Amino acid sequence: MEATGRRGGPREERRVGNLTEHRTPTVDRHAEVAEIERMLVGPSLGDQTRLVTLTGVGGVGKTRVALTAAAALQPRFRDGAWLVELSPLRRQGALLAHVIAETLPLADQTTRPMIEVLAEYLAARELLLVLDTCEHLTEDCALVTEALLTAAPGLRVLATSRRVLNAHGEQVLRVEPLPVPETDDASPDTADAVVLLTQRAAEAVPGFTVTDADRAGLVRLCRRLDGLPLAIELAAARLGDLSVPELTARLGDRFAVLGDTDGIATDADPPWHRALRTAIGWSHQLCSPAERLLWARLSVFAGAFDVETVTRICADDHLPARQIPGVLETLTEKSILTWQPTGDSERYRMLDTIREYGAHWLRDLGEDDTLRRRHRDHYLALAREGDAAWIGPDQFAWYDRMTAEHDNLRAALEYSLTDSEGHSGLEMAAALWFFWYGCGLLKEGRYYLDRALAADTDPSPARVKALYVSGPVLVYLGDLEALEERAIECTALAAHFGDTERRYAAATELRVSVMRGDRGQVLARAQAQLDTDWRERPLTLIPLAALVFGSHTLVTEGRFEEAVAWLDELSAACDQNGEHSMRAWGDFVRSQAEMALGRFQEAHEHARAALRVKHRLSDGVGTGMALESLARAATAAGRCRDAAWLLGLAAQLWETLGRPQAGIPAVVAAHHVCERQTRQAVGEDAYRRYVEAGRTIDLNTGITAVLDPGDPDFPIVTP
């Protein structure tokens, strides 16, 4: 049966992946794309393989071929094609399953291993997974793909890697350099390498044209570069400064003096490898001293970076801060960096092959540890700044900033956890509490907190804070046993330190009471944390959480007016400080109280306010709770078709989180009541139809419709 909207029209199509508009290939790769298609979905089951790895030297175009093939294949997969970029992960193989889950997206919030969650999620899906840049994680990629392919018969994996994965059932397709004419007098117009060179030169050099006199030189230049796309693009960027003959001569000189220490991996065929080392080394040689130094220093970044951060980490007497913006611009013009506009700002990125070359030179300069420490110190300072500023008016900006810096935060954490001096690993993992708890990264937060606590066991205020920060993460994940263990240690350690540490311990004990369902203890501990002077101190998570837990307990006990009084205090404190996240939790609890008091319009408004904030911050549990409240409010107000659709939308979200209604007994019970009342009101067939419409629409599209209703044909909640 076709799912329908409010007036019976067909439901909106689901999103079918995360592939975005990538740079269009300027040369044909039809043969490779056709072969990938034949291997993955080709005409009979006996012809198909489920794991194809594209191999070849760095810079040969594996990623571009994979993306072209994935875009062509996407309509063949019911659940779409998904690109997982592994380059920023470096050697953090333990996070591979987490990164895949975040991409899908699958924000599981249970204690189960992520690989099990992924396998279960994919088991009934037909999906193409593109794992890009696997060479530094081949063993981990092999293990993960084997497990997922075993569990999910509808899954296909397309990987790119300089090295084969050696996974069971893997088929390897080698991506070759572009064809180049064998003789200078051959027509270059249809030679892919020459076509790429001329098109890239036209993009890089305004007014660039090819004359008859240039054609033979272009062919010789492409032959010198063995048709390697990255090498050709680096050369094209230089045609504004050098003529084609000059460029070819420079490359010839570079071949003559080339050594074996240019920092490029050596697992490719010798001709291609030599061409790549030559092109990158020659481009490096033609850079100014400032450009070469910044190139080397930029290699410490994982993923993208902005001008301000580069200036703070890379500038010194040898590379003054005032020069950084200009040097970044010239490195971009020379194709060393890629410029990425991001809304009202801009960021830069470096290809892995280019980064490896810079890292080699950074080691030769003796600056590797110095720059990695600067990188770590910057992101530790950023984490501390976010820790102090999160309970304030800039939460959305902090969410955007930290999400953009996710790859670099991981790299800084990894360095901190290997640094034996001080407590930087504990401090950074704990300072990022708002990132783990407030931005939907609970499993990764637990991963780093567990590692930091295991690596740094000395009694310290930093350890007390890390134990406390584990509290909200473990509550969301539903791990009472681990929370009780952390609370016992936190309380014992806090006794040796000051008031701040003792407040951390009391807050952790409160969370234990919440998870145990001990209402009396929750109210007593919450009240104790709201001492007479909490309003005079800078606002923190501790009193706000106490107000949320206390008010929710009062609602559960049927003491609705008392709960509203607590919630008024919570709203006033949050509004005074411009805080959104805990205010949204208060709106969720208030919607429950207003519903019980028969004020359905107010309940709807508060639930929608909670949804707006929690969805903006990628808080999956908060988003799910708000959707549950909206469904209950719709049922209570007699809008049962809307309620059924909302229950379906919520069910879709809970499926990605792993625990319906977060496993909270009161919310589970309320869900079942709403479900039963809605089914009775609209009838079984209609109920199933509207639930299915909500369950199968794209989640973001559905939530947007709830928050900004405007289409009369769309199932939305209206007062």
Commentary on this structure:
The protein has 719 residues and is mainly alpha-helical. Among the domains are: 30-174, P-loop containing nucleotide triphosphate hydrolases (Rossmann fold, 3-Layer(aba) Sandwich); 192-285, no CATH class; 287-366, Arc Repressor Mutant, subunit A; 580-707, Tetratricopeptide repeat domain (Serine Threonine Protein Phosphatase 5, Tetratricopeptide repeat, Alpha Horseshoe), CATH 1.25.40.10. The protein has helices at residues 30-41, 62-73, 96-103, 114-122, 138-151, 192-204, 212-224, 229-236, 244-257, 270-286, 289-298, 307-314, 324-333, 352-364, 368-389, 395-404, 406-418, 424-431, 433-438, 442-455, 461-477, 480-494, 499-516, 519-529, 541-556, 560-577, 581-596, 600-616, 620-636, 640-657, 665-682, 684-696, 699-707; strands spanning 51-55, 81-85, 127-132, 155-160, 170-174, 338-342, 345-349. The strands form two sheets. It has a five-stranded parallel β-sheet with strand order 2-3-4-1-5, sandwiched between helices. Strands 6-7 form a two-stranded antiparallel ribbon. The longest helix has 22 residues, at 368-389.
